[in-house]
Amino acid sequence: SQQGEEDPQALSIQEGENATMNCSYKTSINNLQWYRQNSGRGLVHLILIRSNEREKHSGRLRVTLDTSKKSSSLLITASRAADTASYFCATAGAGSYQLTFGKGTKLSVIP
Amino acid sequence: SQTIHQWPATLVQPVGSPLSLECTVEGTSNPNLYWYRQAAGRGLQLLFYSVGIGQISSEVPQNLSASRPQDRQFILSSKKLLLSDSGFYLCAWSAVAANTGELFFGEGSRLTVL
Q: I need a surface site. Which of A47, B21, B83, B85 has the fewest CB within 10 A?
């Protein structure tokens, strides 16, 4: 299965701390994407990292990709209460046109 | 700019009743369209995707069907709902194949089958 698996399933931190979420997958990929979902809402794309990239930044977000370990991490620095949401990684195989999502990490940032 | 509309936002349906969820995209042409389902506390399951009018690919065998009668319209249907059809249904579009670019999601339709 191409499905990514996020770890941990849930994470609770204090405002101002950094939050790190991990994603592991099983087969070769074209790219890996991270999405955010506020409770009861649709998903919002955060960042896309291609298989030939190792690190990418966007504002307070930092994503790394290690294709040898088939894993990725999402770091949110200086977290805010508004970062409270579920975060999903999604992978797309080289031979597939579709994205496969993991079950997500539920992040709670306590003010 | 591009926008995606999905409706209804919520609905409660009895077992055995029909279903129709609609999704439209504005501001783009020939989008790739997707229907995902999210069960409570679970990840997203791809149900259908479409790369053009009348072109539907099914990822999971079930009692649901999808149609794309117009370029920017995607409909999810069922003739007879099952309890297991309850969930949060998300429509999405992408400008390019999902393995090269991002998906843009609608706000979702929460279906409860009683």
A: B83
DSSP B50: E
Give me B43's structure tokens.
């990840």
Inter-chain residue contact B42 with A103, CB threshold 8 Å:
yes
Out of A30, A42, A45, closest to residue B107 by CB: A42
Q: How far apart are CA A73 and CA A56, in angstroms?
A: 11
Interchain contact B14–A (C-beta under 8 A): no
pLDDT per residue over B39-61, tens digit each? 877 789 999 999 999 999 988 86
On chain A, the residues whose CB falls within 8 A of the CB of B100 are 30-31, 92
| B18 CA: distance to closest CA in chain A (Å) | 24
- As a whole number of angstroms, the distance between CA A24 and CA A72 comes to 6
Tell me how crowded residue B81 is: count the other CB atoms within 10 A of its CB. Answer: 20
- Closest Cβ opposite residue A99 in set B6, B51, B103: B103
- Closest CA relative to residue B71, chosen from B50, B47, B89: B50
What is the tens place of the pLDDT at every residue in B9-24?
999 999 999 999 999 9
Residue B84, phi then psi, degrees to nearest 5: -70, -5
DSSP letter assigned to residue B96: S
Going by C-beta distance under 8 Å and a sequence separation of 6 or more, which residues neighbour residue B34?
Answer: A98, B46, B48, B49, B50, B74, B91, B92, B93, B94, B98, B103
CA distance A24 to chain B (A): 14
In this complex, do A42 and B46 lie within 8 Å of one another by their Cβ atoms?
Answer: no
